[in-house]
Amino acid sequence: MKKNILLGLLISVAFIISSCDSSDKKENSDTKGPVPKEMADKINNLEKEIMGDFNEQKVEELIDLCLEYEKQFPKDSLVPAFLFKAATNYSYLAKPYEAIKYYDKVYKQYPDYERAPLCLFHKAGVFADFLNDTAKARVLATEFIEKYPDHKLVEDAKLFIQNLGKSIEEL
Questions:
Q1: Which conformational region is residue 24 in: left (phi greater than 0), alpha (psi within -120 to 50 degrees), or beta?
Q2: What is the 3-state secondary structure (H, E, C) of the chain?
Q3: Which among 38, 91, 103, 125 could bridge 119 via Cys, Cβ 3.0 to 4.6 Å?
C-alpha cells in the first residue's frame, strides 16, 4: 500500500513539474496544471495518511494544498470543504488566527455549505481554547444556537457555554 502511495506521489510530482515547465508556451489544457479531480484526490489521500500517522509537516502540506486548490479552482464546488479542512488543520497546529480566518471565509462566502454552521461553533472553540477569550466564545456559541436551533450540535453548544472558563477539575 505504501508503495502505491509513494508511486502515486511520484507521478503527481512528475506531472506538476512537467506542467510547470516554462520552456513550453503552448496554450492548451495540458500546460495549465493539475485538474481539480487530481488535486482533490491528492488532498484526500494526504488527509487519510495524516489520520493514520499525525505529522506536523504533512499537516502543513495538506493546508497548503487546500489553499492552493482555492487559488487554482476558485469556482469549484469543493472549495468550501477544502477551506474548512484548512481551518480545522490550523487549529490542530495551534494556529488560531489562521483557523479563524478560514472559518470566517467559509461562513461568509459559502453560507449554503453544509458545514458553514460549524464554522461558528469551531470558531467559538478556538477563541476559548487558544485565545482564552471566553466572552467572544460565548457570543459565537450563542449565535450558533440562535441561528441554527435545529442543528444536531445545539446541545453541545449549550454545554460549551455552561462550561466556559471552568478548569478540568471544576468539570
A1: beta
A2: CHHHHHHHHHHHHHHHHHHCCCCCCCCCHHHCCCCHHHHHHHHHHHHHHHHHCCCHHHHHHHHHHHHHHHHHCCCCCCHHHHHHHHHHHHHHCCCHHHHHHHHHHHHHHCCCCCCHHHHHHHHHHHHHHCCCCHHHHHHHHHHHHHHCCCCCCHHHHHHHHHHCCCCCCCC
A3: 103
Query: What is the per-residue pLDDT across 83-138, written as a single tens digit (0 to 9) for each?
Result: 999 999 999 999 999 999 999 999 999 999 999 999 999 999 999 999 999 999 99
The position carrying cell 480566518 is 101
- Distance, in Å, from the CA atom of 17 to the CA atom of 19, rounded to the nearest integer, reads 5
7-48: pLDDT as tens digits: 233 333 333 323 333 333 333 334 356 789 999 999 999 999
Burial (CB count <10 Å: 0-12, 13-18, 19+), residue 42: buried
Contact 153, 145 (CB under 8 A): no
Q: The pTM is what?
A: 0.77
